UniProtKB/TrEMBL annotation:
Subcellular location(s) of the protein: Cytoplasm
Cofactor binding: number and manner: Binds 1 FAD per subunit.
Cofactor(s) this protein cannot do without: FAD
Pfam families hit by this protein: Pyr_redox_2 (PF07992), Pyr_redox_dim (PF02852)
Domain Pyridine nucleotide-disulphide oxidoreductase dimerisation: 344-452
Keyword terms: Cytoplasm, Disulfide bond, FAD, Flavoprotein, NAD, Oxidoreductase, Redox-active center
Miscellaneous notes: The active site is a redox-active disulfide bond.
Domain FAD/NAD(P)-binding intervals: 4-323
Similarity comment: Belongs to the class-I pyridine nucleotide-disulfide oxidoreductase family.
Originating organism: Marinobacterium aestuariivivens
Name this polypeptide is given: Dihydrolipoyl dehydrogenase
PROSITE patterns hit by this protein: PYRIDINE_REDOX_1 (PS00076)
EC number: 1.8.1.4
GO molecular function, one term: dihydrolipoyl dehydrogenase (NADH) activity
Length: 463
């Protein structure tokens, strides 16, 4: 039996960061991972998709090179090389995580962990079984794609993100089921590569968690690029052919049969709570997610859960941050504050990009705030015009009473980088006053963030 101060189960961005932090705090730490270090994010999610989307962006730029006075003819791309580059990027970072864990003296066990109760854990692998024990165990087992009955991914005609990320050839047509971040990023990627894409979303707006105004602009931009979008619609039946599927789509408008070569199922995720021995503990699971308090503590003393398996938002940066807070709390560090879910940014790396933090206008109103809303379009921003990307909007939502920035929502060039400015603002609890008196470099896209603040108070200068 190997005894540790802390054991982390799962080596994704929640687990490996928690393990490094624990080791930094002087704890003897183990991490158990059954597949890849870096988890879904690094191997099959955030990182490899960003590599694919970068290729799509390059293709788009070349396709529109004329706009910049550059003539390019004979544009061609090699799908195998695009996919190989994406896999290479994931591979490099996976090795990097292994190196970081080693440098921080975390003992890594390759295998499947199962809780045995009483702070004990069994790790099984091809090599056999090992027993570990600790008074503090952090579960960071992540989540996997949810599948719908009758439309289960089969790896051939119906894809999850995994097959969608490693296509051997390009389908002519594609139906993307679900218009959350995964669905929209793949719709954007395949559209740039010339595939005929249809998106089917059950709710009445794409990117349903985003501000309605921003989602409407995204919807318009994707349609202009040739993506067909059906909202308030569901795939209710699937008929498989040899190399294509017919999706029966029901909506308020009626029933439609859509034949496509491939279908991507991107209808959300479920937590990985099975076969990890939760039945040997008092931890509770609701709708596939482990229930935790604000410090990630489950109902079983000494057992914690962080990241996707502990519930929404299922985002890598939320998982890492939760992991750090959880481990620091275990270490007895004073003055910690629990994770503020209202300060977790969300980014969708489609073209155009979408990014946000905090409350949407509708949510703020729903919560009883009297709001002041500011808007600034990129078409009035010098840098955006110079870049040739003047489409998009920055929107701010302030509390009229206190001036607190309740939320910020953006669509357009590089907004996934810019959002961090508003995240810092929210973290520091700044009001409109500090934001108005912050000097933004000229010419930058971020000047739109300044103007969107000024606009909320009737002081915008460039519109
Ligand atoms: P999601 O929950 O964000 O979106 C799923 C979408 O599918 C929802 O809009 C939902 O209304 C829709 N849907 C559900 N059932 C449907 C049906 N029967 N027919 C049509 N539509 C249906 O989940 P996701 O996009 O699969 O992503 C999973 C998780 O990964 C999310 O938490 C997401 O935030 C995260 N993620 C984040 C990023 C990023 O930050 N860039 C990228 C990928 C994934």
């Amino acid at each position: 039996m190997n005894t540790y101060d802390l054991i982390v189960v799962g080596g994704g961005p929640g687990g490996y960061v928690a393990a490094i932090r624990a080791s930094q705090l002087g704890m003897k730490t183990a991490l158990v991972e059954r597949e890849h270090l870096g988890g879904i994010c690094l191997n099959w999610g955030c990182i490899p998709t960003k590599a694919l989307l970068r290729s799509a962006e390059v293709i788009d730029q070349i396709r529109h090179a004329d706009r910049y006075g550059v003539s390019v003819s004979g544009l061609e791309f090699d799908l195998k090389k695009i996919v190989a580059r994406s896999r290479g990027v994931a591979g490099t970072l996976n090795k990097g995580v292994g190196h970081l864990l080693k440098k921080n003296k975390v003992d890594v066990y390759s295998g499947h962990a199962q809780l045995k109760g009483g702070g004990q854990l069994e790790v099984s692998s091809d090599k056999g079984k090992e027993e570990l024990a600790s008074n503090s165990i952090v579960l960071a087992t992540g989540a996997r794609a949810r599948s719908l009955p009758g439309i289960e991914p089969d790896g051939k005609l119906v894809w999850t993100y995994k097959e969608a990320m490693t296509p051997e050839s390009l389908p002519k047509s594609l139906l993307v089921m679900g218009a959350g971040a995964i669905g929209i990023e793949f719709a954007s990627f395949y559209n740039s590569l010339g595939v005929e894409v249809t998106v089917v979303e059950a709710l009445d707006q794409i990117l349903p968690i985003e501000d309605a105004e921003i989602a409407a602009l995204a919807d318009k931009a994707f349609r202009q690029k040739g993506i067909r979008i059906l909202t308030g619609a569901r795939v209710t039946e699937l008929r498989k052919g040899a190399d294509s599927v017919v999706a029966v789509v029901d909506s308020a408008g009626g029933r439609e049969e859509i034949e496509v070569e491939r279908l991507i199922s991107a209808v959300g995720v479920v937590g990985n709570t099975e076969n990890i021995g939760l039945e040997n503990t008092r931890a509770e699971v609701e709708r596939s997610f482990i229930q935790v308090d604000e410090w990630s503590q489950t109902a079983e003393p000494g057992l914690y859960a962080i990241g996707d398996v502990a519930g929404a938002p299922c985002l890598a940066h939320k998982a890492s941050h939760e992991g750090i807070i959880c481990v620091e709390k275990i270490a007895g560090i004073e003055g910690l504050t629990p994770l503020d879910k209202g300060a977790v940014p969300g980014c969708t790396y489609s073209s155009p990009q979408v990014a946000s933090v905090g409350l949407t206008e509708a949510k703020a109103l729903e919560q009883g705030y009297k709001v002041r809303v500011g808007r600034f379009p990129f078409k009035a921003n010098g840098k955006a015009i110079a870049l040739g990307e003047p489409e998009g909007l920055v929107k701010t939502v302030f509390d009229d009473k206190t001036g607190e920035l309740l939320g910020a929502h953006m669509i357009g060039p590089e907004v996934t980088e810019m959002i961090q400015g508003y995240v810092v603002a929210r973290q520091l609890e700044t009001t409109e006053h500090e934001l108005m008196h912050t000097i933004f470099a000229h010419p930058t896209l971020s000047e739109s963030m300044h103007e969107a603040t000024l606009d909320a108070y009737g002081k915008a200068l460039h519109i």
